[in-house]
Amino acid sequence: MARNPPIIYLNNAATTWPKPPDVLEAARRSLALPVFGSGRTTGSQGEDYITLAREALSRLLAADPPEHVVFTQNATDSLNLLIQGFLAGQEAGCHVLTTALEHNSVLRPLHEWERQHGIRLTIIPFEGCFVSPAAVRAAIEPDTRLMVMNHGSNVLGSVQEIARIGEILHDHGVYFIVDGAQTAGHIPVNLRELPVDAYAFTGHKGLFGLPGVGGFYLRDPEAIAPIRFGGTGTDSFSLLHPREMPERFEAGTHNYPGLAALAAGVDYIMSAGVEAIAAKAERQTGYLIGELRKAPNITIYNDRPSLPIVSFNIQGMENDDVGFILARGYGIIARTGIHCAPLMHRAIDGGVGCVRLSLSWLTTDDECRIAAEAVREIADNAYSQVSSP
Amino acid sequence: MKEYLLDAPVTEDFFAYLGNFGDVEALPHVGDGFYKFEKTDWFSIKGFAGDTTVEVRFKKEVKEMTVDFLYQLFSTYREGAVDLSLLKRREAAVGERVKTHLYGP
Question: What is the ipTM of this complex?
């Protein structure tokens, strides 16, 4: 263990770092010139970052048409707009499904609606790392209107069977919102084929963008009531908000540097190839899990993740202490605690939380090797008591 | 959570001294040694031997009652010739206030 070792950043499921040079350059370039926003300036010499980003996301996710890609602040913002916008059009007390795998970006909006508007909420449990389509089918009731679930778990790295689940939901007329915060940019996503009504994403994780920009794809705009209104730079004499896409859901000035960076991040991913990104992630997480499994006192919570996430605890040690030692002793940045997924942690570790190592396309094999050695060294030296003088 | 910059590097002896007032756990063979002091309901201190910073996490409801005692632990150790009986009396007095505040009289 070296004093002041270089940083090995393994908290990419929270926010990816480092960013590709093209992303940094795009953000810098967007701030170096006045912004060009259609309808908001007489200038015309700048790039239309909003359209560039919208078209890039449309290509990456096979999300047609590009105007149905809406920009927001992040996945949480997207999920709030989608969940609240959908439920605003439903009868009071309707039934909603979600799962125990969810992040608070789903759980909190739904629980707030349960408390404030009386929806009936069913939380579907998971087995292993997955929610079974059969369990979803069994949970549907005559007045079930909505299901919200993640595509990929931020703790277990498992990718859910949303194709099969979506078919079942649609057979019963249930609207399907998918939280893609952990899958966009990490695995191939084809929204042309997936039976998903809305898919939320964020820019700062697998898409290599900056924090503060995200979005969603919406198949049928009429299914979601807009809940934000304001300036759009279009139809400004109207005192009512435009209903056309994407203005229907976008009010106020966009995050131009964020969108410029996001477009560059998506271009970077597409040039690397999402299949190659997914294959490298599977190989590296497989290596990490294999190494950690050699220590008998390490509990691994996800044996075969599809996303680059490895979650574990060292028996007898608090996960927060392991994170502290990794950071201070080895320069390895991880994340500890419950990762905003309280129901999942109650199920897998009794609610104490765990250590999460999460990789990106830019994580090297050498970094994985160093991280595995560090975790095993900590496990090999599990706690001893210090006696007072 | 607060990070404290100390005048001198942390030592194993320092954590052993803290053990008079709470529980100390260690991974002495990880680097120069990782140490953690836990005083339930008051605060915890984590650090590596040889580092000049430690991380302190207070129980926020009683931080105003316990923070002075933390400074006393730091300063008395640095000055040497610790009067443990004096510190123990102070610990007991603060402990009564903490207990009452958290759990009632």
Answer: 0.88
In a domain, A334, yes or no: yes
Eight-state DSSP code of residue A210: -
Residue of A nearest to B55 (CA): A324
Query: What is the separation, in whole angstroms, between the first and last Cα of chain A?
Result: 28
- Which CATH number do you get for residue A189? 3.40.640.10
Cα nearest neighbour of A4 on chain B: B51
Alpha helices by DSSP H, listed for chain B, are: 12-18, 63-79, 84-103
B61 pLDDT exceeds 80? yes
* Residue A384: closest C-alpha in chain B: B26
Query: Domain range spanning residue A121?
Result: 21-272
Contact flag A381-B25 (C-beta cutoff 8 Å): no
φ, ψ (nearest 5 deg) of residue B7: -70, -30
> Out of A3, A329, A389, whose CB is closest to B34?
A329
* CB-CB under 8 Å, B19 with A388: yes
Show me where the domains of chain B are located: 2-103
What pLDDT is stored for residue A162 in this prediction? 98
Tell me how close the Cα of A1 comes to any Cα of chain B, in angstroms: 6
| Chain A residues touching residue B46 (CB < 8 angstroms) | 321, 324
* Direct distance between the N- and C-terminal alpha carbons of chain B, in angstroms, rounded to an integer: 28
Model confidence at B81: pLDDT above 80: no
Residue A45 pLDDT greater than 70, yes or no: no
Of B30, B51, B55, the CB nearest to A381: B30
Final residue of a structural domain among A248, A272, A296: A272
- Give the tens place of pLDDT for each residue, A252-296: 999 999 999 999 999 999 999 999 999 999 999 999 999 999 999
DSSP per residue, A18-60: SPPHHHHHHHHHHHHS----TTS-S--SS--HHHHHHHHHHHH
The whole-number average pLDDT for the span B68-72 is 94
**Residue A6: what pLDDT?**
83
CB within 8 Å: A384 and B20: no
